[in-house]
Structures are given as C-alpha cells and as structure tokens.
Design brief:
The chain is built from eleven helices and ten strands. By secondary structure, the protein is an alpha/beta fold. It folds into two domains: 92 residues, Chorismate mutase (Chorismate Mutase Domain, subunit A, Up-down Bundle), CATH 1.20.59.10; 248 residues, Aldolase class I (TIM Barrel), CATH 3.20.20. The strands form two sheets. Strands 3-4-5-6-7-8-9-10 form an eight-stranded parallel β-barrel, surrounded by five helices. A two-stranded antiparallel ribbon has the order 1-2. Strand 7, helix 8 and strand 8 form a beta-alpha-beta unit. Helix 1 packs across helix 3, helix 4 packs parallel to helix 5 and helix 10 runs parallel beside helix 11. The structure holds phosphoenolpyruvate and manganese (II) ion (MN). Manganese (II) ion binds next to loops.
Length: 357
Amino acid sequence: MTAHDQLTELRSQIDEINMQLLDLLSRRARIVTEIGKALDELGSKHYDPAREAGMLQELEQANKGPFSNETIKALFREIFRASLALEEQQARAKIQVQRKSPDERTVITLPDGVTTIGNGNFQLIAGPCAVESYEQMDETAAALAARGVKIIRGMAFKPRTSPYEFQGLGEPGLQIARKVANKYGMFITSEIMDKSQIDMMNDYVDIFWVGARNMQNSFLLRALGGINKPVILKRGLAATLEEFLYAAEYIVSSGNPNVILIERGIRTFEKWTRNTLDIGGVAVLKLESHLPVVVDISHSAGRRDIAKPLARVARASGADGLMVEVHPNPPVAMSDAKQQLSIPEFNSMMDDLAALG
Ligand code: PEP
Ligand code: MN
C-alpha cells in the first residue's frame, strides 16, 4: 500500500467515525429531549449540576487516552451545553406567545371588520385617563374621531396609589363611554380590576384592559383567556420582559389569542420622568413575540412636554401603535393631570406624526 493509499484509507475511517459520532450525538440529543419531558412531568429543573459532575467523573475514570482528562471534560461539557440549549429551545417553542418564524404575527380585527392592530399599520389608542363626565368624553371623542382615532379609553375603574383619590365613576362611567363611542363610531377599551367584573363590563367594552398593577394577577388573566374580546395587557411597574410575556401566555394559553402588549415604562432611579420608557424592550418584544406591541407615551413619561419626541420614537421602534392620554382641560383632570395632552396638543402631535409620512 502506498503512503497515498494509506492516507485515503485512514481518512475514510475518520469519515466513518464522524458519521458514527454524529449518529450518537443525535441519539443522545433525542434521549435528552425525552429526559426533559420526564423532568417536566416531575416538575423538576432541567439543569442538574450534580448529575453533570457525576458524568464527568465517570468519563475521567474511563478515559484511557490519548486525550487528557481536561480535553475529554471540555469536549463533554460542550455536549452538555448544547443539550441544555436544545432543551431551552424546545421549552421556548412550547410558549404560545413566542414568535416561531420571522413573519408570524397576531393581527387583531375589531368588530367593524376593518380596524386592525398588528397588521403593520400604526394604531392610535387615546382618551382621558378616566371618564369624568359625558361632556368631557364627548368633547374628547369628537376631537379624536376627527383625527381618525378608532379606539378610545373609557376608564371607569382607576387603580390609584391613594385610596382617598378619585377611583373612577364605575358602571355609570362605562355607560357614558359606550354612548359617546357609539356616537362617533369608536371602540372602547377599559380597565378591569377583578374577574367578577367580566360579565358586567362585557356589555360596554370592546377591548378589555389589564393595568400594570394587575399584570401578574394570574386568576384575572386566566379568566380573560375565556372571553372572545381582545385584551390589552400592560407591563407591570417593575416586570421583566420575560415576566410580561409569561403574563400574556396566561391569557393566550387559556384560549384567547387576541392580546396586545403595552410598554408603559418601568420604575428606575430616574425622577424627571415618571417611569423609564423601555424602547429597547419594545424592539425585543417585537422580535420575541408575534403579539402586537403598543407604546404608552403618557404613563411612561408622566409629562406632556415630551409627547412629540416619544411619539416619534414609538413610531420608529416598529411598535404597532401608541397610547396617549387626552383631556379637554388637563389641569383640572381628576387623575394624571400632569401628563394628559390638551386637544390642541394632541392635534399638534398628530401633525408631527403625519409629517413623518
Ligand atoms: C392607565 O393606562 O390607565 C394606567 C392606569 O396605567 P398603568 O396601569 O400603566 O399605570
Ligand atoms: Mn392615567
């Protein structure tokens, strides 16, 4: 056998071993998946450092060279890491709100059959912080409708910091909001506090709304999974994006796929804005989830004088819309007086957005 023939023969042995290793690695990965399922059933964690250390020790004892123990351990650690990554990928694939392909998107269509959120258009949700009177809602709705806004805030239950502050008008507030919305051909969104309110609110509301303080109220989220109206879910005051998506998962996995996420700023050390608008988070949510994402430029800022730049940022971020508070006379508003836009300010913001094209 010539040296050349020998080389060809040895290389073909290597090729064969590579194929065997590939087959073994694939078999191993399939078994790891089975183990993952068994661990899920037991409610146990997938990563088990003691088990990993035990396997490495056995390999070390069995190793007869020529690779050093350190090399063998490094190679197997890499295999363990790849297996864990595979399990994590499989666990993520099970999460319904997780985007499975780049073009997957949830499009929410409102009862007129033409108003949509999540379809690539930029949707406006606007209205006062709270319903205060028929006149206040009527004046606001007229101004919003004139700019093509289809979804109006009809907030009748206000989760205030102090129990001594205005708590909302309750059901009479919903009656006002419904009357005004019907007059201008608009849809109402309104915050629900407790699952006991679902039946009553169902008579008035087109889109249910879960506020930041209730984002992790899993009983409420599950109950909203059982209705056939869309749900707007706001990010909690200090919720991570993962917690936010798991909250959405409660609703979706309970049967209601029509969830809209709202980034409303998170608590940080910053004082000059009420919260810190996490615009990077909006981009990540759009990447990680197929649900529509809307940016609340009012509660994230707590001030009206930066509405225009924030609206521009929201639009540029790839979000599906923005939420802004508008009141006919903000200084006398019964809640969030500092951040609500007057009607001229709202119009000016709309002109600014329109100029962006
Ligand atoms: C709201 O948007 O009406 C509201 C109360 O905001 P948040 O839940 O984000 O504080
Ligand atoms: Mn408010």
